Amino acid sequence: MADPINVLFLCTHNSARSILAEAMLNHVGQGRYKAYSAGSSPRENQQPNPLALEVLRHAGVSTEGLRSKSWDEFGKPDAPHMALVITVCDNAAGEVCPFWPGHPATAHWGYPDPSEAPGTAEQKLEAFRQTLHAIRRRLELLVNLPVTGADKLLLQSQSRDLASRS
């Protein structure tokens, strides 16, 4: 089997959407993909949102090893080289990203922040469920694309096309 395609999901704090995407792609990626996540400015001692972890566990997705981290970790020379970097929040999409070794393909898949959902505890949990389902739908399309790690332009084009699908 070929090396997996490395994908980095970016958000501002790396506590909800990017964590959901990392865990879900590692779950549905069938070993063809290895997902990571990071934030442009995670807060000091930032942890994954407990509601994100709860919906992942309820969906049967492993939360082992998930942690909030800065995108600076992935700009270092010894960091895994990414084939694809996907921003999942509009704030991170508008920021100047660091230099990514290997010049990966990029795409933006915007999702509303479920941690900002108003309402009761159950309504907040439902916002996380809906975000996870939306992410999963796109990721299932991604993992079924006929792409190898060497097809950078095709990967970028197809990933950007998925941004218009829900």
The spatial strand order of the largest sheet comes to: 2-1-3-4
Task: Write the element-wise H/E pattern from the N-terminal end onward.
Answer: EHEHEHEHH
Strand residues, percent: 5-15%
Helix content: 25-40%
Q: What is the strand tally?
A: 4
The top level CATH class name:
Alpha Beta
Supply the number of helical segments.
Answer: 5
> What is the CA-based Rg, rounded?
15 Å
Based on the model shown, name its key terms.
36% helix; four-stranded parallel sheet; Rossmann fold; 5 helices; alpha/beta; 13% strand; single chain; 166 residues
Tell me what the structure shows:
With 166 residues, the chain is an alpha/beta fold. It has a single domain (5-152), classed as Response regulator (Rossmann fold, 3-Layer(aba) Sandwich), CATH 3.40.50. 36% of the residues lie in helices and 13% in strands. It is built from 5 helices and 4 strands. It has helices at 17-28, 50-58, 90-93, 121-143, 152-162, and strands at 5-11, 33-39, 84-87, 105-108. A 4-stranded parallel beta sheet has the order 2-1-3-4.
Topology:
Layout lengths: L4 E7 L5 H12 L4 E7 L10 H9 L25 E4 L2 H4 L11 E4 L12 H23 L8 H11 L4
Parallel strand pairs: 1-2, 1-3, 3-4
Summarize the structure in short.
The protein has helices at residues 17-28, 50-58, 90-93, 121-143, 152-162; strands spanning 5-11, 33-39, 84-87, 105-108.
